Amino acid sequence: MQRLCGSFCESTWSRILVSFRSTDSLHLGLDLLIIIADDISGRVSKVLTETFYLRDNEQAQIVSGKHDAHLRMIEAALNVRIVPRGLELAISGDTTEVSKAAWVLRNLASLGPDLTGHDVHYAIKLAETGDRTTLQEISGETVVTTHRGKQIRPKTTGQRRYISAIAENDIVFGIGPAGTGKTYLAMAAAIAALKRKEVERIILTRPAVEAGEHLGFLPGDLQDKVDPYLRPLYDALFDVLGQETFLKYREKGIVEVAPLAYMRGRTLDDSFIILDEAQNATTEQMKMFLTRLGFGSKAVVTGDITQVDLPRGKYSGLIAVQKILREVPGIAFCYFRDSDVVRHPLVQRIIQAYQAYEERQG
After folding, report:
1. Which residues have CB under 8 Å from 314's CB, separation 6+?
2. What is the DSSP letter of 6?
3. Among 119, 138, 157, where does a domain finish?
4. Is 251 in the same domain as 287?
């Protein structure tokens, strides 16, 4: 046993002197106790207890979550036990899992009061995959601050790459499943560009024909016809700008929300243009949209190629454009995965279940 303990300490805790007497502790900002015990099968198992120190009561409440909800999430995912003791969190379990849990807690503690349940969920996923990108590195700078004072930041590595691509390219395609923030972040980037006076207006558009419904057969004036299709865009604008500012901007033509068909024949200068639900644009419509781009303008195209609602015989322009424009300089393609979903955790599992089902069906 002595030989095994010495080998374990040398390989796993280099340059750290470990005492196996339960009364001893290390004074390196955390206490470590390594317990070596024989399990039922006679093999040797390594159990580690690590104490994580919190700065003050405010940080303890933020990191632990309401009714210790964040701690319970970490326990369930990593199979560890976390016991709060004032400003200390005692983590016990398998050495590897305890190390992951401690890394997650350090990540959460670095975020401050904006910490959410999604941040906890994503930090756990990073730890499980061995990705040591910190949540602070992912968040980066604030994209925009909403009218309520909420800071909009990337929450996943996919979102971080997306925001960087928008800053560096004039045309960006954001492709991936629902709930990954493709449209919302594009909207936030557009509003930020408007506030910095990099553009003079924001234009938001969607294909007006979905599931076979044509505008001409719908009741009401143009606004009545298009509102149901464009409602998700309105919702995002309301959330960031507030309804009063949005209505003022729309009245002045600073913000325009219109069906894709109404882009034909126009040249859009000094504009930030977002085409949403682009999987429902035909190849011809996609070409028409992209060639509207004028001087000083930027375009972001978002969509999910697994959700095409075009009539039979019509080919999605979002699928075709990946083959046509992939090598063109100044154009970037960003792909989101189910790990980038920032809605309820069930949404991610639902997406994965449907993907598995569709693969089985061929």
Report:
1. 282
2. H
3. 138
4. yes
**Of 50, 53, 43, 52, which is closest to residue 12 (Cα–Cα)?**
50
Q: What is the pLDDT of residue 236?
A: 82
Which amino acid is residue 133, in one-letter code?
A: T
Residues 149 and 79 reside in one and the same domain: no
Of 186-195, 215-224, 262-271, 303-312, the least confident: 215-224
CA-based nearest residue to 253, from 240, 236, 239, 270: 270
88-94 β-sheet, strand order: 32-38, 44-53, 88-94, 81-85
133 shares a domain with 145:
no
Domain enclosing residue 196, as ranges: 140-361
Distance CA 21, CA 3 (A): 16
pLDDT at 41: 43
Beta-carbon contacts of 18 under 8 Å, excluding residues fewer than 6 positions away, are 9, 26, 32, 34
* Domain identity same for 144 and 161: yes
Pick the last residue of a domain from 118, 138, 158: 138
Count of structural domains, the chain:
2
253 with 144, same domain?
yes
Predicted confidence band of residue 104 (pLDDT cuts 50, 70, 90): very high
Q: Which of 76, 122, 78, 113 is nearest to 343 (CA)?
A: 122
The Cα 291–Cα 266 span in angstroms is: 9
Do 357 and 278 lie in one domain? The reply is yes
What does the pLDDT look like over 37-91, one tens digit per residue?
Answer: 444 444 445 667 889 999 999 999 999 999 999 999 999 999 999 999 989 999 9
Report the chain's C-alpha Rg in angstroms.
26
Which CATH number goes with the domain that contains 81?
3.30.1370.10
- Residue 285 sits in a domain whose CATH number is 3.40.50.300
Q: Is 336 within 8 Å of 167 (Cβ atoms)?
A: no
Measured distance CA(134)–CA(258) in Å, rounded: 39
Q: Is the CB of residue 44 less than 8 Å from the CB of residue 4? A: yes
pLDDT tens across 126-162, in order? 888 888 888 888 887 889 999 888 888 898 999 999 9
Q: How far apart are CA 200 and CA 276, in angstroms?
A: 20
